[in-house]
Amino acid sequence: MATSRARNRSTRGTPQRERRRADRRKEGGLSDTFARFARSASEVTGSPGVFILAFAIVLVWAVAGPVFGFSSTWQLVINTGTTIVTFLMVFLIQNAQNRDSAALHLKLDALIDSFPQVREDMVDIEEASTAEIETAREEYRRRRESVDQNGQGRLT
Questions:
Q1: Whether this model's pTM surpasses 0.90
Q2: Rounded distance, CA 71 to CA 2, Å?
Q3: What single string gives the DSSP state of each residue in the chain?
Q4: pLDDT (tens digit, 0 to 9) for every residue of the chain, 156 residues total?
Q5: Is CB count within 10 Å lower at the N or C end of the chain?
């Protein structure tokens, strides 16, 4: 009983989080609908139950091999099925990855913004060119080595 209450309390979330969820549901649009679908699909497809189901399908297919004489059609069934699933999953995974990456960048930007001594050019570093990122990486590598050699200090 106590564990179910704790579980219900932890899944409910804060009032602010519930308001954000309700606002998201109201927004609508194809992009928002796809994002909700992709998020739900990635949660479902990433579950152990779906893995077991996929494994069972492959196992049934393999066992059926001798029944169908390991024919071309038997091979085509699994090849077609896995190709279709893979093709569709690429888009779902990419959408989930893009959302996670954007959320992570926003959280990092908020952290960077909360420290006044942090360099402003780091806030949007993900928008920089590859050369600019490499230059910044090299600069921080030099700073880190300087701190390591001195045995004290900060990366400022």
A1: no
A2: 57
A3: -HHHHHHHHHHH--HHHHHHHHHHHHH-HHHHHHHHHHHHHHHHHTSHHHHHHHHHHHHHHHHHHHHTTT-HHHHHHHHHHHHHHHHHHHHHHHHHHHHHHHHHHHHHHHHHHH-TTS-GGGTTGGGS-HHHHHHHHHHHHHHHHHHHHHT-----
A4: 444 444 444 444 566 666 666 665 555 688 888 888 888 888 898 899 999 999 999 999 999 999 999 999 999 999 999 999 999 999 998 998 898 898 998 888 888 878 777 777 777 788 888 998 899 889 888 888 887 776 665 555
A5: N
